Amino acid sequence: MRFGGLTAVDRVSVNFYPGELVGIIGPNGAGKTTFFNTISGVLRPSSGKLLVAGRNLTGQRPHRYAQRGLARTFQTPRVFSDLPVISNIEFGLKFAGRRRRKYWLWGDETTVPWALRDARGILSLIGLSQVAELPAAAITPSQQRLLEIGMALATRPKMLLLDEVAAGLTEGELEEMARLITRLRDELDLVVVWIEHAVGTLLRYVDRVVVLHQGQKIADGTPTQIIRDPNVIEAYLGDEVLDLGEENR
Amino acid sequence: MSLSAWLELLASGLITGGIYALVALGLNLQYGLMRILNIAHGEFLMLGAYMTWVAVTQWGLSAPLMLPVSFGVLMLLGLAIHWFCFRRLSSTSPSLDIFEARGLMLAFGLMFLVQNYASWMWGGELRGYDFLADPVAIGASQFAGNKLLIFALAIAFSLGLIVMLRMTLLGKAVRALMQSPVGAQLVGINTRRLHPLMFGIGMGLSGLAGCLLSMAYTISPAMGEPYTVTALIVITLGGFGSMTGALLGGLFLGIVEAIGMHFTNPSLKALLSYLVFITVLLVRPKGLFSR
Amino acid sequence: MNGRQALMRDILVLVGLIGWALVLPHYGSEFAVSMGLTCLMYVALSSSWGLFCGSTRYLSLATSAFFGVGAYTTAIGLGQLAWIEVIVLGSCIAGLLAIVMGAAVLHLRGTYFAVLTFGMAELVRHAISYFEKSVSGTVGRVLSVVPEMSVLYLTVLAIAIVSLVLSIVVRRTRFGLALIGIGADEQRAQTLGVNTRLIKITGFAMTAAVAGAVGAAMAVRWTYIDPHTAFNPFIGFQTVLIALIGGAMTLWGPLIAAIVFSILAETLRLQAPQIYMMSLGLLLILSVLYLPGGLASLRWETFRDWWRGTGAWVKDRRYELSGDKERDKQRARRRRIV
To answer: Which residues in chain C have Cβ-Cβ distances shorter than 8 Å to B120?
Structure first.
């Protein structure tokens, strides 16, 4: 992915498998957000292909990505501030989240996980049931982040892309968020891709880690593997990752 | 077509282009810095023209004398407008997009107000006065003296502005603000003073352009609108926020218009400018001269 | 007020409007009917404009182009086609024009869009003007076969009703929600599955179709049509003004504003047209500064807030002017140094 003369992401090739929780980490400027924007359809890649369940989605507009089951959150929560929280969730349900009903116009929607059956269900899944009627601008930023995830879930995705959802959270909130994410992966059979700076927590929960550095993929494996990978250690100058290595041993 | 005829064509294109550039620079300053798309810009040009006309025909002053006066008066007017209107807007708008949209509507209202004020005050007929209308010969071609003067002054002022922006501390502060509003404030650049000042200068430039125009052309209350649109086209050609782009774009558009008018129909002038505009926006939305 | 009650209220107001409009010609003077006609015209124009442009925040200044296209369809076609056919045709051509314009221009941001629509409207005007002069050899056209005033009145009333019903219905559908989503955060709406391009073009075409129908109908009010009258940009501007001052995002804002301004227009326009337009401009400025939601968003709280705001401002000025502010600043400075 090139921006003018700058190659932000250079021939990074990743495969995602169903039911995985994958983390993407890398120091600042590694190209994580650009990578994210490219695989979610916001940016058009200068070269390369994007295949979702065998379908080529390269260069399509973002709503097609959503309809094919790729949902994403934004780093700074972008919610519809004037609408109440529950309408924010309903929005996704009415568009990319629509599924065929059992008897054409009424009855339950088929092939939808129980937890995502309606807006109230999604709200209770992410834990925002008590603020359902408030306008989205009135809830706290960490609640807004949960709402972001809820809105993405409302599109009934097959793959959920989370962009730095842990930024600015306290230790406790971080643990809760990570537990929510694993729960989503387990109950809804999603692929969850999680970009994060807070490497420590992420490494504890993910199945697989992809490490980016200066636009290139330098490692791809389980957390224990990448901690020992010399390229990764060099990229991060050792501190945080080595500490974790101590813990995990 | 002979060489001298070509030169005359090019020159007349450059002359109109010079005015376009001057007006566009003012608009660019306002939009690039403050994201205020002043769609009423042409109306203030018209005010400058009328002020000069009143001064010349009713008080007998000389037209070039009105140059600094029209700049000054319109700059003060710009300061006042910014203070009373746009300042409140920037403090009450929840986001930049909303600020832009509201700014546009505000400017829309201003356009109505100013244009009809002029129409009410001075009537809708065409007015004008004579100034340096004798032809001057350069080489084998002939030009009207006043148009040459207009061209020279327009280019001089445009270059002056560009030089000021590049060389002086004030200019550097303005360019810093354009590139990074927050960063500039963090290093101590005073937005509260700079925004109204630049808004005022932008308006002053359009008043100046109006004064220049009144020397060679007839004026009417509706004369401003075409210049606003042309200035917008020029800014789009040159890239929003780029000063040299506005200058080059203005000259370029002037030449394109002159050539187009000569080879097709003069009444197609407006059509041509709009077509250029739309094509550029579709093909290179960031402007012809942007990096 | 929940959904069902709101719907009841909307239908009641609509019925009231229809009743009043039907009664007016029988009891009102010719002047009143003319005013009523203008009012209905602007109701149709501004409510359809508000439906698309209010929700999506894409301010279109191209209304005069669609109006003019409709008017010219009547001017050219009224001899051969029936009245209804001409109206429908004018509406369709305007809609097609909007689709072409929209496909070219709707992917640009709000302010660009506003300027471009204005430019395109002028382009259409100049193009038709040139075409008429060189190809048809005419400067303007005369309408010889003109239907009666009552037919015109009822047609415009019908168009206004269609426009209002459209507003009422669309706001309750997925389409209306998509429009609001686009206005709130277009990219977010896209990532949630909204095909923004299609929705925008459809909404734009809807506005254009109504404007085209109105133009086609109103053409018979002036028996002589030339590009200057048919594509008069003032019609487009006044539509935008009315919708904005009334409250573009609401259903009844444009209606209220249309009534108020039609009265103002007809009374002031003949004596002091410039004063009328100046006051329009001033009103728009005031409304953008102090009442961005339009007249329809006026509530008791708004007045209370204005009162409080003025009080606070007066207090601030008194504080500054009496020198107390300076004294406090000095005191604070001294304390900091110590």
So the answer is: 272, 274-275, 278
Report pLDDT digits (tens) over B43-56.
Answer: 999 998 888 888 88
Q: With 0-12 CB in 10 A as exposed, 13-18 as middle and 19+ as buried, what is C260?
A: middle
Position C204 scores a pLDDT of 93
Q: Which ranges constitute the DSSP H helices of B82-168?
A: 87-92, 96-122, 145-167
Contacts of C122 in chain B (CB under 8 A): 229, 270, 274
**Domain limits, chain A:** 1-69+158-249, 83-156
Between chain B and chain C, how many beta carbons pairs sit less than 8 Å apart? 116
Tell which residue, C213, C174, C173, C187, has the closest CA to residue C70: C213
Mean pLDDT of C4-24: 83
CB atoms A91 and C195 under 8 Å: no
- Which CATH number describes the domain made up of C3-297? 1.10.3470
pLDDT tens sequence across A168-203 = 777 788 788 888 888 888 887 778 888 877 677 777
What ranges do the domains of chain B cover? 27-223
Chains sharing 3 or more CB pairs under 8 A with chain A: C
Chain C 158-177, CB below 8 Å of chain B: which residues?
A: none
Q: What is the dihedral of CA B224, B225, B228, B234, to 10 degrees?
A: -110
B109–C283 CB contact, under 8 Å: yes
| Below-70 pLDDT ranges, chain A | 1-11, 29-30, 100-111, 198, 236-249
Percentage of residues of chain A with pLDDT beyond 70: 83
Interface probe with C: pick from B31, B87, B108, most Cβ of C within 10 Å: B108
C63: confidence class by pLDDT, cuts 50, 70, 90 = very high
The reported pLDDT for the residue numbered A249 is 42
Residue C286's closest chain B neighbor by CA?
Answer: B106
- Domain residue spans in chain C? 3-297, 299-338
Q: Confidence class of residue C322 from pLDDT cuts 50, 70 and 90?
A: confident
Q: Decide if C187 touches A, using CB distance below 8 A.
A: yes
Q: Between chains, do C277 and B116 touch, taking CB under 8 Å as contact?
A: yes
Chain C nearest-CA residue for B114 = C278
- Phi first, then psi: give them for residue C236, nearest 5 degrees: -65, -45
Pick the CATH number of A1-69+158-249 from 3.30.1440.10, 3.40.50.300, 3.40.50.150, 3.40.630.30: 3.40.50.300
Cβ neighbours of B98 in C, within 8 Å: 57
Residue A104 phi, psi (nearest 5)? 70, -65
Task: Give the pLDDT mean for C114-118.
Answer: 81
Please state at what angle helix C174-191 crosses helix C196-218, rounded to 10 degrees. Answer: 140
Q: Per residue in A127-157, pLDDT tens? A: 888 888 888 888 888 888 888 888 888 888 8
Give the pairing of strands A2-3 and A6-7. antiparallel
Average pLDDT over residues B26-30: 86
Q: pLDDT digit string (tens) for C236-291?
A: 888 888 888 887 777 778 888 888 888 887 777 777 777 888 888 888 888 888 87
Give strand pairing partners of A52: A55
Distance CA C39, CA C265 (A): 10
Instruction: Report the candidate in A155, A123, A179, A186 with the shortest Cα–Cα distance to residue A165.
Output: A179
**Residue A84: Cβ within 10 Å count:** 16
